[in-house]
Amino acid sequence: MSEPNERCAPFEEDLSAWIDGQLPAMRADEVRAHVARCGACTVRVAALRAVDAELRGAADAPRADEVARLAAVRRNVDAELRDGTRERPVARRAPRRTRRWWAPLAAGAVGAAASAALLLLVRPPAPSDEGVAERSERAVVAREPVAPLAAPVSPPETTLAAKQERDAAFARSGASAVGDGAQDAALEVESADELALIERMAALPDAERAELERDVARWRQMTEGERDAVRERWRIAVE
Amino acid sequence: VHDADEDVRLMLALRAGDTSAFDALFRRWSGPLLRFVDRMVRDPAAAEELVQETFLRLYKARERYEPEARFSTWLYTIATRLALNELRRPRQQHPHKSTDETDADGASLVLSHEGPRADDVAHARRMGASVEAALVDLPERQRAALWLAAVEGLSYAEIAESLATSEKSVKALVHRARCALSERLGRKAEA
Predict the structure, then answer these.
(1) Do B49 and A129 count as a contact with CB atoms less than 8 A apart?
(2) Contact A91/B47, CB-based, under 8 Å?
(3) In chain B, which residues have their Cβ closer than 8 Å to the Cβ of A17?
(4) Which residues of B fall within a CB distance of 8 Å from A16?
(5) Burial B65-89 (b: 16+ CB within 10 A, else e)
(6) C-alpha angle with apex B48: A124 to B35, nearest 5 degrees?
(7) What is the pLDDT of residue B92?
(8) Under 8 Å CB-to-CB from B118, ≥6 apart: which residues?
(9) Between A111-121 and A98-107, two packed helices, what is the crossing angle to 10 degrees?
(10) Closest to A28 in 3D by CA, of A50, A52, A48, A36
């Protein structure tokens, strides 16, 4: 079989675009002419086309639970259009071992540490994130469908002290039962970003959570200057 | 393969207030869209929410719809942008640093998830296809560009619109992605 040679080089980067029919007509003719007389490029084009065949095969094969998932999506779309509520996605209905972990969070026991992590991670709102923020708010509804955003939502808490105070107040209220409505109600007063984060943190496997806890410890030892540097990097990352 | 004229007709009917057209659009597009978004975010719950959000936006924007762009392009642009947003969120940091974009990866300093997530690996194994496994390793913009070109048949101009980039950049993204997957397939064939 022939090997690619120096005559192939000028065509290499156009092969995909040629396969996709995205080259100007003249250039497409040149590529076609080269491929027709070059064994190496013929093989190469066949290999690239094989990728497409595999991908289309994958795209044409719905997963077993697709019908159920789409039915849930459809119900949510309808509910959202009707009255702004939605249920939890099918994929999240698995038993939630996460509950136990965020009980102490809700009760204030590790509130400070979690708050530090949240503070660290809560992003300044970027315009393009508007949709995501909206969705996070709805995720609250998903968790507690009987109490949609009917209660007034407080403005986001942005300071550690405010969050600690809220955690303490929650602990004083005696609402210690895991997974009860009070817990979800208390969480509803937080910002959408914070909620999404709590949920994501809670869902972390043990090893990653340990890592996060180390991050939190590191954060708490940082000087304000160091924290500003991290915030700045974060700001750049989301913009 | 979808009849593009039919999509436009349905969208115009929806704009005119015929909500049954929304049902039809959902039936036609929710499956392909979910399969695309599943590959993008690889978190099934997040993928469902993205499909949901895409259709909600479609519905809310119905009165502004003009049949200038292809319907599928419009739909995939919404979904792609939502998916890329989702991937920028901390939990979804891609395990592999993107090589095709200039994003400063400050977040990973604090919350780093090195290596593929367990559910990615499990999913790739379940799919049993090496191309699926290789897709997981591609930077997200390459993944999106290749899927939209090879599976959905979007033009590079349309993909450029979806990814908010240039056609030239799309051409490079698609080619890099296709080469990477082709190499993976080749290795499998040799093995």
Answers:
(1) no
(2) yes
(3) 156, 171, 174-175
(4) 149, 171, 174-175, 178-179
(5) beeeebbbbbbbbbbbbbbbbbbbb
(6) 115
(7) 46
(8) A205
(9) 100
(10) A36
pLDDT of A54-100, one tens digit each? 999 988 888 889 999 999 999 999 998 887 665 555 665 544 333 33
Q: Is the pLDDT of residue B183 over 70?
A: yes
Phi, psi of B116 (to 5 degrees): -65, 145
pLDDT in tens, A101-156: 333 333 343 444 444 454 444 434 344 444 444 444 333 333 333 222 223 333 34
pLDDT tens for residues A40-56?
A: 999 999 999 999 999 99
What does the block give as tokens for A55? 């991908």
Sort out which chain A residues have CB atoms less than 8 A from B85's CB and list them. Answer: 128-129, 131-132
Written as one letter, the residue type at B150 is A
Instruction: Give this complex's ipTM.
Output: 0.78
Looking at residue A211, what is its pLDDT? 64
pLDDT at A165 over 60: no
Q: In 3D, which of B152, B37, B189 has the Cα closest to residue A56?
A: B152
Residues of chain B neighbouring A212 (CB-CB closer than 8 A): 111
Residue from the list B57, B110, B181 with its beta carbon closest to the beta carbon of A215: B110
Which of B56, B127, B156 lies closest to A80 in CB terms? B56
Question: Taking CB atoms and an 8 Å cutoff, what residues of chain B touch A230?
Answer: 106, 109-110
Is the distance from CB of B26 to CB of B15 less than 8 angstroms?
A: no
Q: Is B10 within 8 Å of chain A by CB?
A: no
* DSSP character string of B64-91: G--TTS-HHHHHHHHHHHHHHHHHHSGG
